[in-house]
Amino acid sequence: MPITIDAVPSKFSANSYAVLTEADAFFEARYGASDWDAATDDQKSAALVEAAKIVDSFRFRGGKYRLSPLQPLEFPRDWQEFKSGTIDSVSLDGTDRVIVDADYAGEEDYPDDYFNGWALEMRTGDAEYELLRIQDFARATGTFTLDGDFSVAPDADDQYYIIEKIPNEIKYATYEIATWLLSGAGDSLGDPSITNYSIGEFSETFAEGVDARIPARAKYYLKKYITRLGNITS
């Protein structure tokens, strides 16, 4: 049965750090993407979900952004950014899924596309606590275009949060692990003799059955987010 990707940050059903189109765009600009290109969409989706599980086997700085109910993935973290606002107008007619908050219009700190990939969570109204991924942000009007539908359309004056997108390095590491899995290099996953890995001053003990031999590029991208534990070697 095909896997459905859910990459809305902090959503209760999230199972991936990126949607398929993002991963495809990454590999279009990456040298040596033959294994990714040769895979079907279903294979790619399954690899992205499995890669997220491997990424989450590391211990990262801080804690999960959402604790109640607990978000399934390790990111976003509690040190990431979130903002709040109040809806001025709504247009959710099935083809033009947008909300407008004039307070974000023309803000120099938030250029076009700044909030792309963030999650928008309703905090009041009939759709309270529901989350959708922000597909596009237009600075000129403070318009957020959403990917999907709420169960009930929000109203003007409803309040919302916007939760920071998954850090690029976490996505890049996910892509590298996903194509590594597709290449067959991850077939040795489950070797119980491999329990930890060290990256310079960072050391991590893996969950049972997680292979420490993930790609060097993935290790490089993850390094800055791993908890600093001192000079421990495996």
What's a concise summary of this model?
The protein is of the alpha+beta class and 234 residues long. The protein has five helices and nine strands. It has helices spanning 20-28, 34-38, 41-55, 168-182, 216-222, and strands at residues 82-86, 89-92, 97-100, 119-122, 131-138, 143-147, 159-163, 196-199, 202-205.
What's the main sheet like? Answer: 7 strands, antiparallel
Q: What is the count of distinct domains?
A: 2
Q: For the largest beta sheet, what order do the strands appear in spatially?
A: 1-7-4-5-6-3-2
SS-derived structural category: alpha+beta
Integer average pLDDT: 86
Order of helical and strand elements:
HHHEEEEEEEHEEH
> Total strand count, please?
9
Would you kindly provide a written description of the structure presented here, covering whatever features stand out?
The chain is of the alpha+beta class. The strands form 2 sheets. A 7-stranded antiparallel sheet has the order 1-7-4-5-6-3-2, with no helix packed on it. The chain has a two-stranded antiparallel sheet with strand order 8-9. It is built from 5 helices and 9 strands, in the order H-H-H-E-E-E-E-E-E-E-H-E-E-H. It has 2 domains: 114 residues, no CATH class; 82 residues. Helices cover 22% and strands 18% of the residues.
Which properties best describe this structure?
seven-stranded antiparallel beta sheet; two-stranded antiparallel sheet; disordered C terminus; 18% strand; 2 domains; 234 residues; alpha+beta
Protein topology:
Layout: H1 20-28, H2 34-38, H3 41-55, E1 82-86, E2 89-92, E3 97-100, E4 119-122, E5 131-138, E6 143-147, E7 159-163, H4 168-182, E8 196-199, E9 202-205, H5 216-222
Antiparallel strand pairs: 1-7, 2-3, 3-6, 4-5, 4-7, 5-6, 8-9
Helix pairs in contact: 3-4, 4-5
